[in-house]
């Protein structure tokens, strides 16, 4: 049994799909407190901040702790979760017909080990259909996701090329964690 220190429904879905027993206790780390706009640095610092908050709250005596963070970068910009419809639309339009990368960092700590992993999955997307974009934004599925994209959903038909794990792009590089569980 592990503690998923995340509010993310997607991370919970990923653990379930790999039959990993967990309880979910998300934190309240303020990612706006992070000063850097370097995507990789931001992602690591957010993960570290989440870890420190939840490690001090729960420790690892009763079970290991897993935290993670994901950001998207496109044209050198740092894309986090969309704040509103306009934000989501501009993020999605930026990534249409473009190259984009999802960076996911995780920290896993048990009594035996501490794993820190930063992985990147890069996509080459075709132009997104305008009507598709409208429907996707109206569905609200673009919210709560880094860069407002959903690689296993909205983006899937537009993937021209991908390098890296889909799980990394969804927020938790589970294949990198499995060998340590
Ligand atoms: N379903 C889906 N979710 C994605 C995708 N890309 C990123 N995400 C989610 O986007 C969210 C990125 O925000 P984070 O700040 O890392 O995590 P969070 O959801 O706020 O949850 P915490 O871990 O409690 O911070 C995570 O929930 C990721 O699982 C994707 O392609 N598909």
Please count the helical segments: 6
Indicate the proportion of strand residues.
25-35%
The overall pLDDT average reads 97
**Helicity, in percent?**
25-40%
EC number: 3.6.1.9
Protein name: Nucleoside triphosphate pyrophosphatase
Keywords: Cytoplasm, Hydrolase, Nucleotide metabolism
Pfam families: Maf
Task: Write structural notes for this entry.
Strand 1 (2-4), helix 1 and strand 2 (22-24) form a beta-alpha-beta unit. The chain is an alpha/beta fold and 181 residues long. Helix 3 (85-95) packs antiparallel against helix 4. Strands 1, 2, 3, 4, 5, 6 and 7 form a 7-stranded mixed β-sheet that branches. The termini are close together. The mean pLDDT is 97. The protein has helices at residues 9-17, 39-58, 85-95, 130-139, 166-170, 174-177; strands at 2-4, 22-24, 65-74, 77-79, 99-109, 114-125, 159-163. Guanosine-5'-triphosphate (GTP) binds next to helix 1, strand 3 and helix 5.
Give a topology summary.
Blueprint: E1 2-4, H1 9-17, E2 22-24, H2 39-58, E3 65-74, E4 77-79, H3 85-95, E5 99-109, E6 114-125, H4 130-139, E7 159-163, H5 166-170, H6 174-177
């Amino acid at each position: 049994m592990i503690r998923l220190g995340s509010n993310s429904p997607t991370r919970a879905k990923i653990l379930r799909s790999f039959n990993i027993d967990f309880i979910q206790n998300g934190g309240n780390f303020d990612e706006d407190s992070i000063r850097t706009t370097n995507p990789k640095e931001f992602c690591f610092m957010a993960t570290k901040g989440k870890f420190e908050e939840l490690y001090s709250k729960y420790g690892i005596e009763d079970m290991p702790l897993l935290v993670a963070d994901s950001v998207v970068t496109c044209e050198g910009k740092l894309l986090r979760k969309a704040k509103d419809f306009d934000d989501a639309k501009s993020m999605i339009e930026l990534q249409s017909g473009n190259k984009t990368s999802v960076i996911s960092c995780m920290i896993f700590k048990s009594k035996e080990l501490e794993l820190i992993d930063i992985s990147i999955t890069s996509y080459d997307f075709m132009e997104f259909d305008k009507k598709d974009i409208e429907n996707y934004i109206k569905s609200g599925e673009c919210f709560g996701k880094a860069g407002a994209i959903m690689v296993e959903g909205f983006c899937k038909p537009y993937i021209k090329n991908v390098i890296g794990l889909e799980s990394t792009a969804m927020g938790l590089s589970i294949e990198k964690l499995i060998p340590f569980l």
